[in-house]
Design goal:
Elements (H helix, E strand, L loop, with lengths): L2 H15 L8 H12 L8 E2 L3 H26 L22 H9 L10 E8 L7 H4 L11 E5 L5 E2 L1 H8 L41 H4 L7 H6 L8 H17 L3 H18 L13 H12 L4 H31 L5 H6 L13 H26 L13 H23 L4
Antiparallel strand pairs: 1-4, 2-3
């Protein structure tokens, strides 16, 4: 089979699944994890601070933090070059009305992102869409955000670190990574230096962020040879950026932003614990992938279409079901439920003991990749095509989710324990 045809197969699969988020309920998952993790020794409350205030107070030191982060990433990820000079953080340009958009451009995120001051009440189901939605996201398709409850915060308000993290961990899905590529039909995408979008659809909201929220690091050498674009992913970039900003915020006396940046980084870590965000085609070896493409080329597309449908359906099912199950557990507080317990256990032996850049790929993503084959098979055996309702506690889907979310819990706890909080 020609390499181009193989590439088309992979792209077809990725186009069919990449608009889907990873774990649909980052805030709810994190809420349940932190109820136990910080129960005995909760960190001190912090005072709410605007991003503009943080930037203006620390503008002279932030340039070095961001430049060092960009240089480090460029040395690790050849497809993520250092930003152009006119994008770099310049303290001289930092004025009250320009600081936030210039900061976002230096980070190479969506400059329209809104760093509003609010908290997400993950354990409250909204009766109607929050009036704050227009203040926290530019999304046109609000999806499940209309189910969430958001409460405004004022500068100086005392909040718990858990409240900050639970809110922040969802934010990267609100528009932070959307339209960042040269073919995204955005002005900033043309100058950010990421080139054309490697997979997903650059024209659509959620799909335009796909390469920032998926990381395929452990596919076979044959797959990478035929589909080298799979290497062009960026979650490591975001995790490193926001972790360094978190460290700097804590170091310079801005704990609110220390936790909020950490929450942003944690989003991508949790994304990579989802098997379908770390494995392109679980249980489908390169030989089978090539075989179904060959059949399609001679006029027998049934096997290829069936494979794509199966993979995209299982991906969608596990995420949709997880969202509604977590909501149910937040309200029922059923601590005996296997999934509830999985989120409140201590880290397992495969969690990151010392978090660093290399552990994202070598431990966190690898653990999800290794879990993908078994999880995909078990989901297939359920015979469920799409989410319909939350099943009784003994249903086998809960055992599958418990195993996967135990990994999410482990990696979340390990990352939080690594934070350099004074």
């Amino acid at each position: 089979m020609k390499p181009l045809n193989y590439v088309i197969l992979i792209l077809t699969v990725l186009f069919s699944i990449s608009p889907v988020s990873a774990w649909n309920n980052h805030a709810g998952i994190t809420y349940l994890i932190l109820r136990e993790h910080w129960k005995l020794k909760p960190p001190a409350n912090v005072k709410v601070e605007s991003l503009e205030s943080f930037l203006l107070k620390e503008k002279n030191s932030l340039a070095q933090v961001l430049n060092e982060a960009d240089s480090f990433i460029a040395s690790k990820l050849p497809h993520c070059p250092i930003p152009s000079e006119d994008l770099k953080f310049d303290p001289i340009k930092m004025k009250a009305d320009t600081a936030v958009p210039l900061f976002f451009k230096a980070l190479r995120v969506n400059p329209s992102h809104k760093p509003a001051l609010y908290k997400q009440a993950a354990d409250v189901l909204a009766k109607k869409p929050s009036s704050l939605l227009k203040e926290i996201t530019t999304l046109h398709e609000l999806g499940k955000l209309t189910n969430e409850t958001f409460l405004p915060l004022s500068v100086g308000t005392s909040v718990t670190p858990a409240e900050v993290l639970i809110t922040a961990v969802d934010e990267p899905d609100y528009d932070l990574d959307m339209y960042l590529f040269s073919d995204s039909d955005s002005e900033f995408g043309k100058v950010y230096g990421f080139g054309e979008q490697s997979f997903g659809n650059p024209k659509y909201e959620f799909s335009s962020q796909a390469p920032f929220h998926m990381g395929f690091y452990h596919e076979s050498s044959l797959i990478f040879t035929l589909a080298g674009f799979l290497k062009k992913t960026y979650p490591e970039y975001r995790i490193y950026q926001f972790t360094k900003l978190s460290e700097h915020a804590f170091k310079t006396g801005h704990p609110y932003w220390g936790y909020r940046f950490a929450g942003w980084a944690l989003h991508y870590i949790q994304d990579l614990t989802q098997p379908y965000h770390s494995s392109v085609l679980p249980r489908v070896g390169a030989g089978k992938q090539i075989g179904v493409q060959l059949l399609a080329m001679i006029g027998l597309p049934g096997s290829k279409e069936k494979m794509i449908d199966y993979i995209s359906n299982r991906h969608t099912l596990i995420e949709e079901y997880q969202y509604y199950l977590i909501k149910d557990l937040l309200f029922t507080r059923n601590k005996d439920h296997i999934v509830y317990r999985s989120l409140q256990t201590t880290p397992n032996t495969n969690s990151v003991s010392t978090f660093d850049f290399d552990s994202v790929r070598n431990v966190i993503s690898k653990q999800a990749y290794d879990a993908a084959i078994e999880a995909d098979y078990e989901i297939e055996q359920l015979g469920i095509l799409k989410y319909e309702m939350v099943y009784e506690e003994s249903h086998p889907i809960h055992k599958i989710l418990a195993k996967l979310l135990a990994n999410t819990s482990s990696q979340t706890r390990s990352y939080l324990d690594s934070l350099k909080v004074p």
